[in-house]
Amino acid sequence: MPRCHIALGGNVGSVEQTFQTALARLAEDARIAVTRISSVRRTRPVGPHAGGEFRNAVAEIQTEIHPLALLDVLKDVEKGAGRSPGEHWRPRPLDLDLIFYGNEIIEHRRLSVPHPACWYRRFVLDPLVEIAADVPHPVKGLTVGALRARLMPRPLRLALAGSTAKSRQHLRHELTTTSSEAEVVDWQPGALSESETAIIAWLGTHDETGRPANFQSLPLVPRLDVSASPDQAALLQAVLQAALG
Fold first, then answer.
1. Which of 20, 21, 217, 219 is the S-S candidate for 194 at Cβ 3.0 to 4.6 Å?
2. What pTM did the predictor assign?
């Protein structure tokens, strides 16, 4: 059976008790074995409407359930804890996110695995590294431990690629005022190495210089496509918050 990892989060009610109840419900299913559980961590909320301090943890399970069916199980457990559908970036009693399903890569309208944000979210990586430091990310190709290590140097460097020079300048100003722990720069191939840049945000159509030509031309590990976001500044502020921990 594949080894899977589930991230737990919440900031409403007795969250640690909610985690215990949720994991007990999963273990009651004969098709699921809960094999490892990280410690519970206190984390800062991400986003302006997320509410107060969160609790976060990660659990390892082994299961024979198909990924989409497992997603249904997780949503049912969330509902049982009082989670309402559509609660994103809001206070909530329980989040259960499927981070890894073995080494599978899944792109479905209901589910993306690995979780598309897990590689830069410290509230996922910090507990995940406790129990899965040597597990490789199926897309990025680095282990969980290596992904977390990339986010630790300060200032954390976020590079902007694509769009226009004017748009990048405006974003740099907005994001630089968000945190003194981050450095926001333009992505310049050859001037910055992949290891020196925690995240490279692709903003969309290439600028007047024609460099870079597209998202796929960016280094695999740090690249993040935010081109479809209607509010790139707000999204990147949340990305920085999550990456800084």
1. 219
2. 0.94
